[in-house]
């Protein structure tokens, strides 16, 4: 498939090899001969039943075109081919996921705090552009939250009754859990307090990305629980 990409890629991009492949398509490493910088080219092959590009793909492209921030990956270029668009991104030698899975070099708390700060800064920027994340597994995500926080109650979340079809919704029963049981030991008290402030049913009590950046976690001297 990388050979096919070479046929359609503009001459400025020299394909060097495959980085990975998933349900959304192929990702290859390339050299941008115009800037002499490495790039990652994401080949999308997501078409709907009518042969057009899926709405979610168009939405992703539009969002990336509107973002210009140091903590959000840069969409440099895009070009078409027979099966769909190819997106050219700045090359990242590793992902946060690969860092988290690296058992030989686990992240220290300083690294975790730095990555968390970058994530919140990027999220704050997106919120300021009135952009929000969309997910295809929102029911599963809600089920995880319910298992942790317990079944939502009107006393905790007054706007619960305003949800569409509220009286038709049947939430699974869960008494919830305490954060100390879910975190590995030893855990920092400020880490637990930050997560607790972020995961709230009531959005009025939930930290925004901006408020999260000002949380004591980012300015505290760690004390192990």
Can you describe what's shown?
This is Cyclin-dependent kinase 20. It comes from Culicoides sonorensis (Biting midge). With 225 residues, this protein is α+β, with helices and mostly antiparallel strands. It has two domains: 78 residues, Phosphorylase Kinase, domain 1 (2-Layer Sandwich); 124 residues, Transferase(Phosphotransferase), domain 1. The protein contains eight helices and five strands; from the N terminus they run H-E-E-E-H-E-E-H-H-H-H-H-H. Strands 1-2-3-5-4 form a five-stranded antiparallel beta sheet, sandwiched between helices. A hairpin with a 2-residue loop joins strand 1 and strand 2. The longest helix is centred in the middle third of the chain and has 20 residues. It is globular and about 60 Å long. The N and C termini lie far apart (51 Å). The model has no long low-confidence stretch (mean pLDDT 82).
List the helices and strands and how they pair.
Blueprint: H1 2-8, E1 13-22, E2 25-32, E3 37-44, H2 55-66, E4 75-80, E5 85-90, H3 96-100, H4 109-128, H5 138-149, H6 179-182, H7 189-198, H8 209-213
Antiparallel strand pairs: 1-2, 2-3, 3-5, 4-5
Which labels suit this protein?
225 residues; alpha+beta; Phosphorylase Kinase, domain 1; Transferase(Phosphotransferase), domain 1; five-stranded antiparallel sheet; 5 strands; globular
Helix content: 25-40%
Radius of gyration: 21 Å
Shape: globular
Which regions contain 5 or more consecutive residues with pLDDT less than 50?
none
SSE ordering: HEEEHEEHHHHHH
CATH architecture group name of the largest domain: Orthogonal Bundle
Tell me the span between the first and last alpha carbons: 51 Å
Which percent band covers the strand fraction?
Answer: 15-25%
CATH class of the largest domain: Mainly Alpha
Q: Indicate how many domains the architecture comprises.
A: 2
Main beta-sheet strand count, sense and barrel state: 5 strands, antiparallel
Here the CATH topology of the largest domain equals Transferase(Phosphotransferase), domain 1
Side by side, the strands of the main sheet go 1-2-3-5-4
Mean pLDDT: 82
Number of helices: 8
Count the beta strands: 5
EC number: 2.7.11.22
Pfam families: Pkinase
Keywords: ATP-binding, Kinase, Nucleotide-binding, Serine/threonine-protein kinase, Transferase
Organism: Culicoides sonorensis
């Amino acid at each position: 498939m990388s050979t096919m990409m070479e046929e359609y890629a503009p001459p400025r991009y020299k394909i060097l090899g495959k980085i990975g492949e998933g349900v959304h398509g192929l990702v290859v490493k390339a050299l941008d001969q115009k800037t002499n910088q490495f790039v990652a080219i994401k080949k999308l092959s997501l078409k709907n039943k009518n042969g057009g590009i899926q709405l979610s793909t168009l939405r992703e492209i539009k969002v990336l075109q509107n973002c210009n921030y140091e903590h959000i990956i840069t969409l440099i270029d895009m070009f078409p081919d027979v099966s769909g668009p190819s997106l050219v991104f700045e090359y990242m030698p590793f992902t946060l996921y690969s860092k988290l899975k690296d058992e030989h070099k686990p992240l220290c708390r300083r690294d975790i705090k730095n990555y968390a700060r970058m994530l919140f800064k990027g999220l704050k920027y997106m919120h300021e552009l009135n952009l929000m994340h969309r997910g295809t597994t929102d029911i599963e995500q809600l089920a995880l939250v319910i298992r942790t926080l317990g079944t939502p109650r009107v006393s905790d979340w007054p706007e619960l009754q305003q949800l569409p079809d509220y009286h038709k919704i049947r939430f699974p029963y869960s008494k919830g859990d305490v954060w100390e049981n879910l975190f590995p030991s030893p855990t920092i008290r400020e880490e637990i307090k930050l997560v607790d402030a972020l995961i709230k049913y009531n959005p009025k009590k939930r930290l925004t990305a901006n408020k999260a950046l000002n949380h004591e976690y980012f300015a505290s001297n760690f004390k192990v629980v």
